Amino acid sequence: MSVGLLLSLAGLALVDSTSIGTLFIPVWLLLTPGTINARRILVYLGTIVVFYFGVGLLLVVGGSRLADVLGGALDNRPVLWAQLALGVGLFALSFRYDGKRRPRGGGVLRWRDRATSGDSSTRWLVGLALLAALAEVATMLPYLGAVGLLTTSGLGAAQIVGLLAGYCLVMVVPAVLLLGARLAWPKLVEPVLGRLNAWIARHSGGVLGWILGIAGFLLARDAVLRLGLMDELVIRL
Q1: In angstroms, rounded to a whole number, what is the distance separating the alpha carbons of residues 89 and 226?
Q2: Of the candidates 171, 144, 131, which has an alpha carbon nearest to the alpha carbon of residue 16?
Q3: pLDDT tens for residues 126-150?
Q4: Tell me, what DSSP letter sits at residue 121?
Q5: Rounded to 10 degrees, what is the CA torsion of 164, 41, 187, 112?
Q6: What are the strands, taking DSSP E only, across 109-148?
Q7: C-alpha span between 26 and 30 (Å, rounded)
Q8: Most CB atoms closer than 10 Å: which of 6, 96, 163, 230?
């Protein structure tokens, strides 16, 4: 298990921690007036973790079987060059979502309405978490990148499951920290949450851009290291 793999997974997990399901909705739930019920919000976050972990296991199993069928094809230089091209492409595409264009906040605002219009019961929060996670399945690029790294890492099943579980927990760490701060210092944290909410409404159009950029960078970095391009560059210098 290399340090590079751990850093890549941690970076992707932190990117995933800023999605609608892992950060935006928790912020809106924490802005609810009155006393915050920590248990219910933890149930929401726990549902997100369990869902992502389950999807990750299915993807890893499928990817591992594909890797067994292909043998060492996934480590061939043409495949690694394709991964590098994909990473560079995602990074280049991210500049189209730089936040300077007129934001399309309708989708994000609809999620805010959903988060603030419910009764905050445990059943409703679980349903909201599943709905948010399902809506993000098609766009979970960082998570798909992390699963790809784990599938081709050559690690044992126990290590992969442990890393996947750790990834899913890191995803919700920012939301848990905000919850703890909201409970401990409500008067200090509420204005911060309000500013964060305003930032989400203003810059939601650019969030996808930096998610694509970071995911692309990490995928390209992994390909560069596995291709040995950095070693070749150092030798030439």
Answers
A1: 18
A2: 171
A3: 887 887 777 666 557 778 878 878 8
A4: -
A5: 90
A6: none
A7: 6
A8: 163
**Cα–Cα distance between 86 and 39 in angstroms, integer?**
41
Q: How far apart are CA 102 and CA 109, in angstroms?
A: 15
**Alpha-carbon span 47 to 220, nearest angstrom:** 31
Residue 166 · residue 12 · CB < 8 Å: no
Q: What is the signed CA dihedral for 152, 154, 159, 163, rounded to 10 degrees?
A: -30
Using the predicted structure, report yes or no on whether residue 24 has a pLDDT greater than 80: yes
Contact criterion met (CB below 8 Å) for 75 and 217: no
Between residues 21 and 229, the one the model is more confident about:
21
pLDDT score for 42: 92
Give me the pLDDT at residue 114, please.
Answer: 63
Buried b (16+ CB within 10 A) or exposed e, 200-217: beeebbbbbbbbbbbbbb
Region for residue 104 given its phi and psi (left: phi exceeds 0; alpha: psi -120 to 50; beta: otherwise) = beta
200: Cβ–Cβ under 8 A, 6 or more apart, which residues?
Answer: 24, 27, 108
What's the confidence (pLDDT) of residue 104? 47
Q: What is the pLDDT of residue 137?
A: 65
Report the distance separating Cα 8 and Cα 167, nearest Å: 11
SS3 breakdown of the chain: % helix, strand, coil, rounded to 5? 85, 0, 15
pTM: 0.71
d(CA 105, CA 109): 6
Alpha carbons 35 and 125: distance in angstroms, whole number:
16
